[in-house]
Amino acid sequence: MAIYIMMTNLTDEGRKTVKSNPYRIKEVNKEVEAMGVKILGQYVTLGQYDFINILEAPNNETIAKVATELGARGTLQTNTMAALTLDDFINTMKR
After folding, report:
1. Assigned CATH for 2-94
2. For position 25, what pLDDT does the model report?
3. Domain assignments of the chain as residue spans, ordered by start
């Protein structure tokens, strides 16, 4: 399984939703997991992004589907990066 870092920003509509129903975030997490993605970590951040999510997915296609599905709702925008563990990176360099 591949690791991804998904950074998200709420839109105006997303901020309204979270303000009126903060538990909606956990509901969305269940929807993401139903699409085949495991949430390894999730953080609310101050600064450029509202949330940083550490995700595990079987492939790029799955994570692209999640990003598209979430973005199409109009409540958030995503920026997703593939990530390697430090050990995987070191092993790649040794080859």
Report:
1. 3.30.70.1060
2. 96
3. 2-94
